[in-house]
Amino acid sequence: MSPDSKTAYVAVMGSYNIAKVDLATFHVSWITGVGSGPRHVVMSPSGKYLYATLNGEGHVAKIDLRSDHVVDKVYTGQQPAAWRWPPTARRCTSSTTTPTR
Asked: What is the pTM of this model?
């Protein structure tokens, strides 16, 4: 959710994209080519960046919301899942899941 509560961001697992939903009109636009299997998204406290866990490739993508382009990726390990930005933290945290065999 954007800081002004006007736009929702939805990770579309099984794709390479994130849906951007205008909550006034329900118009959907897309942030494309984010990476394999976006699973969870978190907005930076400033509202300038969106972070998406990429379950299919073990990365977190940093997306600049002014351009809707990925500006960085960080390797986190297999299947990054939970993602949060604690209110008083300067950094965010991620956890991974490991498939059982």
From this structure: 0.81
> What confidence tier does 29 reach under pLDDT thresholds 50, 70, 90?
very high
Residue written as token pair 């965010």:
92
The residue written with tokens 């866990």 in the block is 53
3-class SS string, the chain:
CCCCCCEEEEECCCCCCEEEEECCCCCEEEECCCCCCEEEEEECCCCCEEEEEECCCCEEEEEECCCCEEEEEEECCCCEEEEECCCCCCCCEEEECCCCC
For residues 79 and 87, give the distance between their C-alpha atoms in angstroms, rounded to a whole number: 24
Domain boundaries, the chain: 7-96
Half-sphere exposure of 31 (CA within 13 A, CB side): 30
